[in-house]
Amino acid sequence: MSQPENPKQTEAMLHDDVIPTTNKTNNRTFADVLKVNLSRRSVLQGTAAATAASAGFFAPGALANMWSSSAQKADSGELVGFQPVTLEAANAVDQTWPVISPDYDFQVLIPWGTPLEPGACEEWAGDPDTRPSPEDAALQIGVGHDGMWFYPGDAKKGYGIEGYEFVSTHGVLCINHEYGSNTHVLGKSAPENLDDVRRMQHAMGVSVVAIAKRKGGWKNVKDKKSRRIHANTPFMFSGPAAKSDLLKNGAGNVPLGTLNNCGSGPTPWDTYLTCEENFNGYFGASMPMVLSEEQERYGLSENGSGYGWYNFDKRFDLSDDDYANECNRFGWIMEIDPFDATQTPVKRTALGRFKHEAIAIGVAADRRVAAYMGDDERFNYCYKYISDRSIENCEARGVSPLDEGKLYVAKFNDDGTGEWMELTIENPVLAERFADQGEVLIYARIAADLLGATPMDRPEWTTVGKDGEVYWTMTNNSQRTEPNAANPETPNTHGHIIKTTGGHVNTSFRWEIFMLASSTSGTEGSFASPDAAWADAYGRLFIGTDGGQDDGLQDQLTVLDTSNKNAMPKRLFMGVVSDEITGFTITPDQRTAFINMQHPGNGDPAATNFPAPRDYMTIPRDCTIVITKKDGGIIGS
């Protein structure tokens, strides 16, 4: 989810137009360019040495072959053949309750405040007169449901051989809890004490929750793998920046926490990657100070985004010299073992520090991995990481493919080609500015500025298609001032989707505009602000939206046939007023999908009480939506 750029969000701290653009460089804008071109793993426990090197490697597991077994059994008929939610049907309701295709059913699962597992604590069901305690919040499903992934319950056994079908009736769901406003979570505009801050901190982060299909639908169940990871959970650093002094504080406090977990991605070795996006908003200064160039480039400010944590928690006070580098500990991608609740999560510094939206991993023919990542802020960049060695070589040496590799940033050329420019201290341009590779990665945004990367319209999710192509969602850009054939709106309120090709381990690529969302306006396929994305093995592309929609619509889940350039999106699901549809994961048989409904009604019970019945009092709660086809078919068909 992207907090900025959503015109439906009512709190000023969430509005794009009040968040300054941090990229002050004069790099050629993408708008200008477009004028011209239309087992299972055995976990090596983290030690002091491992923290500096690999911090544990998760060996290749069953999920690496999941799509080559269970999911390669496409139904016959039209690829995207379901009856969509029509504009007439969408506008015939009061939009306080979701609408789904007549070919599908949906179920609500694990709303915010649900005990992580039955009996862990009392459920908070949206009572406006009570709020979970910090202790209960750490035992409940959090707020701000976003990226997620489903891990089949038998993946830990090392299955995945050809012909084996993973279970699709139980497993572990890893789910991000990106954020919640003070008024939504606390019922007041600002925290009044450290207890309030802890209540907020424990409601965010990640849930690892065991779920199973039971009579009456899917439920969360008791399982030793379930756990919460939040702003006060210990973690480790790994990779080139792990020992950097820029990640150490004078207070000597151990690394704690993950913040503003937006998108995500699974790895071929059965782990979960969670992405830290707008972490800057939680920091502020209790005393007047002058911000550094590096702090400003990452959007840090004296007042933050209104959360007020720095008034009660010194870790988030930029003016406290003892915690001067605490902000550098956020903006990373964290790796979590969904099957081992004792594992210490690892932030992989080789992947760079910026406002990570999501991550998608592709595996090349030589078994090296490529990771595709977007930096979700206006005029920021597209990144790619390539491992130095194969998955198997890394496993044999006990290191992670995500610790030894190279990070690149994209430059888009006028002729439909592009190049991946390496962010390395070996480049004289970067060597003049930075002391070592660790500093390059900690300030990856500045390094990308210096290399002349192409500023983009808020790169968000990435996903790898059936033939290795990569789809990038560019959600929108309220500060675009020059129209062009590819982005005709000024400002760019609709966004677009870009497709890149050229191989996972190559440093050149080709690109094209896959779809301009504005071209769908006024049609039955109308959608805008593409955000969450997932491509299946058959050629379907699932897109969740985050932002104002045309034609009287709310945010939605649409499905596109990527094999047909003339095919329009089909609307499978539409959410409620002022929500966001985000996250996507699916069972191995591809007959159950999970999406998330974030901030329904912006937390305002006068707008909606979803998932509770309409009563104008119950606080609306973020939740996961389970989607199935009535005839038992593959999702999207």
From TrEMBL:
<dbReference type="Pfam" id="PF05787">
    <property type="entry name" value="PhoX"/>
</dbReference>
<protein>
    <submittedName>
        <fullName>PhoX family phosphatase</fullName>
    </submittedName>
</protein>
<dbReference type="InterPro" id="IPR008557">
    <property type="entry name" value="PhoX"/>
</dbReference>
<dbReference type="InterPro" id="IPR006311">
    <property type="entry name" value="TAT_signal"/>
</dbReference>
